[in-house]
Amino acid sequence: MVSKTFELVSYEKNNRIAWITINNEERMNALSTGVQNGLYDSFDEVINDDDVLVAILTGAGGRAFCAGADLKEMTERDQTIGQGAAQDAKSGLSHATECKKPIIAAIDGFALAGGMQLSARCDFRIATEKSRFGMPEPLRSLTPINTMDTLEMGFVPLGEALWIILSGAHITAQRAHEIGFVQWLAPDRDAMMAEAEERAETLKLCAPLAVQALKNGVHLNMNPPAPQPEGISYLDHLRSLNAPLQEKVANSEDRMEGPKAFAEKRAPNWQGR
Q1: In angstroms, rounded to a whole number, what is the distance separating the alpha carbons of residues 62 and 21?
Q2: Stretches in the chain below the pLDDT threshold 50
Q3: For position 84, what pLDDT does the model report?
Q4: 38, 63: one domain
Q5: What are the backbone dihedrals phi and psi of residue 5, each rounded to the nearest 5 degrees, phi first?
Q6: 168 and 259 housed in the same domain
Q7: Cα separation, 55 vs 76, whole angstroms
Q8: pLDDT of res. 145
Q9: Residues sharing a CB contact under 8 Å with residue 92, sequence separation 6 or more, in sequence order
Q10: So what's the pLDDT on residue 82?
Q11: pLDDT confidence of residue 73
């Protein structure tokens, strides 16, 4: 097992799973500068370590997964709160989006504002039944960036997304599950962490390069980069963008290992190359 600490974020790698924990309990795991830097460095480890196949992100303590921007820190720095939130959002949150490996958010407690956005940047969300979600920014006359693109990406109906974004109201974990934001509910923290590990183990059964190419293709389809070259269809444009990863899968050692393992009636031994 590998253990590291990146400022206010702990990082552990065990059995090809990265466990990332926000340790800013006294401020409800708010996105302080230390947390943002720690998240960036942790996701950097996940992105660049070929031995990591899946990441699980959670918050320490059980009171909050993440309560959003650290407004107290911004006030102490005499920084414009809206501007600070926008700058900070380019750090840990954006690096999570850049990760092609699956990320599971294990949510126990409040996931508010930037904390809800952070969970939305993950691929799957598991929450304890006591958890609460919300975007309280309009209650404080804030309009942070990255809100619409994380909640209006297609996995939450438009009306539900707009209610969360515009009302500032909290929703329960049960409601978040009903609208598709949360995939799985757990009765308590222990059950949540066990569920997260079980889901990670399931993902590990698949060829890592194939998983990464498929995730990348889905995200390209949901958020195609502009501009689209003139004279090329939308689908052809998306295929061309995902082609390097697809070719990497097609030319990999794992490409032959899958059919071979099936024929030999054994579990595949994925190399990730």
Answers
A1: 12
A2: 81-90
A3: 46
A4: yes
A5: -125, 125
A6: no
A7: 33
A8: 57
A9: 31, 35, 36, 37, 38, 39, 40, 42, 43, 118
A10: 47
A11: 74
Omega cis (within 30) before 136: no
Residues near 207 by Cβ (< 8 Å), separated by ≥ 6?
Answer: 249, 252, 254, 257, 258, 268, 270, 272
Residues 69 and 81: beta-carbon distance below 8 Å: yes
Residue 150 lies in a domain: yes
Task: Please give the pLDDT value at position 77.
Answer: 66
Under 8 Å CB-to-CB from 218, ≥6 apart: which residues? none
Considering the domain architecture, whether residues 110 and 217 belong to the same structural domain is answered as no
User: Which residue in this structure is represented by tokens 């006030």?
Assistant: 75
The pLDDT assigned to 67 comes to 93
Provide the domain count of the chain: 2
What are the pLDDT digits (tens) for 245-273? 677 777 777 777 777 777 777 888 877 77
Length of the chain: 273
- What integer pLDDT is reported at residue 205 of this predicted model? 93
**What distances in angstroms separate CA 87 from CA 17, 33, 99, one per listed residue?**
29, 10, 19
Q: For residue 229, which amino acid is it?
A: P
How far is Cα 210 from Cα 249, in angstroms, rounded to an integer? 6
